[in-house]
Design goal:
The protein is of the alpha/beta class. The chain has 17 helices and 13 strands. Helix 4 packs parallel to helix 5 and helix 9 crosses helix 15.
């Protein structure tokens, strides 16, 4: 019985280990499983010396041996920053154009998969399709075009003229890049809905909502370093509530609800409230010594800063997994962008720790937590009438101090999680989309 040959997929991911960047984590976790679903991956990325960001050498050990990784240069940032350009996608675009063309031509690539947030690289898909008739698929981890900061009540956009420039580029290039795409996947159904509203012809293109998921192998790797000291002290009966990952202008609504709820809990149960400790670790994407606090100003405004710790620089992925396993409670603050689907939910789930979710009503995150039944959920709204949320927070703190008596936390939906959010299962769904894209192209 003959075995069908593997199709070859060229994965365009400018960031790649040992650099620890969030937009390459889907690719990294999927790599061990592609072959099982009939696809041989080839990764096109930027060489380590041309990438910025936090290095995490241990991540390189999670890459399958024998994987074909093509690393190319990028324009040095010390040159491009003279004209205000730091975006990695812009700096590597020309190198990717020629390197990708050589790979497609010489190695019989069947499909190109763009999985990153350097959106200008998406334009290469249409160029390569024109030259070599190879179909391409996009992974929309974040929206390329967004009107979030133009909505009533939104904060001012960050970045000044750079934000306006990026918005103009997105407006000019998104339609062009998507015009001949053969498949689109996204972490959020709302991103796909918004795309179809702008480009109705996308309704005929294969699409899939596929989260980032979590890797059991990553969780095991994070716990192998037994020499790493514990971060949290329990000497006086403290409860340590932990959030790992970036914070920013989309989270202060939920943080304000959290800290105002803590302030009210002080009024009702001062002895217990003093034993609560909140840790926000790795709240920016920059290297140590460069990050700015984004959580502490909110805590100070609410008068609870003495119980809050913030580490504002980016932490390693495996380091975050280890910290999650040490926490008493894991915190999931929701975003004012209702389409936001935080990928940290999935490693949080695998940690087995109790979770506290603070979510906007009618948000994607609210629906996801309800499906997984993995968190004590506090729902709030943007209008400020959140007395019920504060009361529910107080009940949660009491339950935590009482050791979460039986029946007080939801029963986790493990079978649903394993089917829909483990990395190997999600890789199978990616490959089904690849198959459809190639068949449709033919």
């Amino acid at each position: 019985m003959s075995v069908a040959p593997l199709r070859r997929v060229l994965i365009v991911s400018p960031h790649f280990p040992p650099v620890n960047a969030p937009d390459m984590q889907r690719v990294r976790m999927s790599l061990p499983s592609y072959r099982a679903y009939g696809w041989e991956p080839v990764v096109l990325c930027v060489g380590d010396e041309w990438q910025d960001g936090v290095r995490e050498p241990a991540l390189a050990e999670t890459i399958p041996p024998g994987l074909r990784v093509v690393r190319v240069p990028a324009l040095p940032r010390q040159w491009t920053r003279l004209i205000g350009v730091g975006n990695l996608g812009l700096r590597c675009w020309l190198h990717f154009l020629f390197a990708g063309a050589r790979l497609i031509r010489r190695e019989k690539i069947d499909l190109v998969f763009f999985s990153n947030t350097q959106f200008v690289t998406f334009t290469l898909g249409r160029i390569w399709r024109f030259l070599y008739h190879v179909p391409y698929v996009f992974d929309l981890q974040d929206p390329w075009r967004t009107d979030y900061y133009e909505r009533p009540g939104s904060r001012r956009p960050p970045g000044g003229w750079k934000y306006q420039g990026a918005r103009l580029v997105a407006w000019l290039l998104e339609r062009w890049a998507f015009r001949h795409v053969r498949g689109v996947m996204s972490v959020s159904p709302d991103y796909l809905t918004n795309l179809q509203a702008r480009y109705p012809w996308l309704a005929a293109v294969p699409q899939a909502v596929i989260g980032f998921g979590a890797s059991r192998e990553d969780s095991l790797a994070a716990r192998r370093d037994e020499s790493a000291p514990g971060h949290f002290s329990h000497g006086r009966g403290e409860l340590h509530i932990v959030y790992t990952g970036a914070s920013g202008p989309i989270l202060p609504h939920s943080l304000t609800v959290l800290f105002q709820g803590l302030k009210r809990y002080h009024e009702r149960s001062p002895a217990r409230a003093r034993r609560l400790r909140f840790h926000f670790l790795g709240t920016s994407y920059v290297a140590p010594g460069q990050g700015k606090n984004s959580v502490m100003p909110v805590a100070q405004a609410c008068g609870v800063a003495e119980q809050v710790e913030e580490v504002p620089h980016r932490l390693g992925h495996l380091e975050c997994l280890r910290l999650q396993s040490e926490a008493d409670i894991l915190l999931l603050p929701g975003s004012s962008d209702l389409a936001y689907s935080p990928s940290k939910i999935y490693p949080y789930y695998l940690s087995g720790r109790p979770m506290l979710g603070l979510v906007f009503k009618q948000s994607v995150m609210e629906r996801l937590l309800d499906e997984l039944a993995c968190a004590y959920v506090v729902r709030f709204s943007a209008d400020g009438a959140n007395d019920e949320a504060y009361e529910r927070l107080g009940r949660f703190f009491d339950l935590a101090f009482d050791g979460f008596p039986a029946g007080t936390l939801p029963s986790r939906n493990d079978s649903y999680f394993n089917r829909h959010y483990l990395a190997e299962s999600l890789t199978g769904r990616q490959c089904a989309l690849f198959d459809h894209a190639v068949t449709g192209h033919a």
